[in-house]
Fold:
Amino acid sequence: MSSTPGHDIDTSDDGKQASPAAPFSTDGSGKESSPTQDSGTSGGWKAALSGRSAGWWAIRVVVVVVVVAVVGLMYLVSITLNPDSGPEGFKVRRIASAAEKHLSKDPNVVSATVINASADIGGTEADLDVRLKDDTSADAMADLLASTHDAAFGKNSPDTNINLYVTLSWTLHGTSIKTTYDCAGRPDLLRTARQDLTTAGEARTIDITGGRLNIDYGQVTAIPTTFLQPSAPRSTKTFTMNGWKVTSTSNTDGQFGTTAL
Structure:
């Protein structure tokens, strides 16, 4: 018997005919997809992920800007309600420190201490307590105040809104003196402080605290020679004689009446 020509047929181990390779593949769901479709799908996912990433970055930037704005606003509110925690507080402490260092180096100064340096809604000020050597002259004291202004504020400083109160204590020609001056004032005006001490040597005490000059001659046997001399505006002079206490207050020009009251 003749046999018809045939083709070789590849069989698997179980004898079944193997299917030719298909140009399509299936995904996990059984759906067919071509290599071209897979490439397109992958590119779409990448574009989607890229767009989503850009969106997240935009959100992050917005959040950062909002946080910075909120923190900045809170800081402004804080230093408005409590200036001591802001630039004004730093500035007044720097000025007080500079004044203390300058005063401590002066040969006429025994000690210099910062009592207070703070900023608040009511005002910004520093207070220093200074002990001078006894018999430090009025001229030396006045020059010291002027130089302290320059050391603390510098020349043409815009910070003279900050009060720098310096209280000086010492004895001059037997007169006990305690004076307070605001060194934020002009140096040329501070040098006139020597005029407040013209009664030193005759007065018992000279007190210039609380913004007013008070001179007490104590117990005397005759009217003090400097009692009616011009002095600071609204200043007060007092003496006691024969059991009587006499007080006189100057007018706004610093002039005293000829009759003690």
